[in-house]
Design a protein that fits this description.
The complex is a heterodimer of chains A (114) and B (116). Chain A is mostly beta strands. Chain A has no helices and 12 strands. In chain A, the strands form 3 sheets. In chain A, strands 2, 5, 6, 10, 11 and 12 form a 6-stranded mixed sheet that branches. In chain A, strands 3-9-8-7 form a 4-stranded antiparallel sheet, with no helix packed on it. In chain B, the strands form 2 sheets. In chain B, strands 2, 4, 5, 6, 9, 10 and 11 form a 7-stranded mixed sheet that branches. A 4-stranded antiparallel sheet of chain B has the order 1-3-8-7, with no helix packed on it. In chain B, a hairpin with a 2-residue loop joins strand 7 and strand 8. Chain B is globular and about 45 Å long. Chain B has 116 residues and is mostly beta strands. The chains are: A mainly beta (114), B mainly beta (116). At the A-B interface, strand 5, strand 6, strand 10 and strand 11 of A face strand 5 and strand 10 of B.
């Protein structure tokens, strides 16, 4: 069984300040972990993914995430928020063992204040 | 990554009618997935559609309500049958990545359905 918990449903930051979106997971297997972003009235875009290579993963638009097995976390960060980062972010855990099983977190809505 | 399109992008339907959503991919893929995103909620997997076999439905979803077709490796349809206002959601299709990225899913733009 696998699950993912996004600890904050809403995060508000000022433009130019750091962003931290928290995600914890549980999985019986070695998981793949992803962050997707969904801008208003748009589809989901893959930001980055972790698949047992480097624990610090760099994604698009300056985002990165660090896989910490001891903490079962995969938090998403960005050093400096931009207005265009305002969107909803989903943490996702996936296991491919015969067939793909994907579990989405409940999402974190990021607000960026000018 | 694959380019995925969906039709229609949005629709407003009357209670009791059915709507068929199309998903087209620009490359051949083995597995396609259909998700529902209810207002203000996360995504829930409805079913997995493999070409040449019946779709596999997740708990809480049944074929009579959400029949799926997968006639070839680049196309799938999801029908929302006998709709009620509770079916108002965004419906998204996704595909797995290419060989070497099969653990990654890529999503279409979604179909925003409103049922009156």
């Amino acid at each position: 069984a696998q699950s993912v918990t996004q600890l904050d449903s809403h995060v508000s930051v000022s433009e130019g300040t750091p962003v931290l979106l928290r995600c914890n997971y549980s999985s019986s297997y070695s998981p793949s972990l992803f962050w997707y972003v969904q801008h208003p009235n748009k589809g989901l875009q893959l930001l980055l993914k972790y698949t047992s290579a480097a624990t610090l993963v760099k994604g698009i638009n300056g985002f990165e995430a660090e896989f910490k097995k001891s903490e079962t976390s995969f938090h998403l960060t960005k050093p400096s928020a931009h207005m265009s980062d305002a969107a909803e972010y989903f943490c996702v855990v996936s296991y491919s063992g015969g067939y793909q099983k994907v579990t989405f977190g409940t999402g974190t809505k990021l607000q960026v204040i000018p | 990554s694959a380019v995925i399109s969906q039709k229609p992008s949005r629709d407003i339907c009357q209670r009791g009618t059915s709507l068929t959503i199309q998903c087209q991919v620009d490359s051949q893929v083995t597995m396609m997935f259909w998700y529902r995103q209810q207002p203000g909620q996360s995504l829930t997997l409805i079913a997995t559609a493999n070409q040449g076999s019946e779709a596999t439905y997740e708990s809480g979803f049944v074929i009579d309500k959400f029949p799926i077709s997968r006639p070839n490796l680049t196309f799938s349809t999801l029908t929302v049958s006998n709709m009620s206002p509770e079916d108002s959601s965004i419906y998204l299709c996704s595909v797995e990545g290419d060989r070497g990225q099969m653990d990654t899913q890529y999503f279409g733009p979604g179909t925003r359905l409103t049922v009156l």
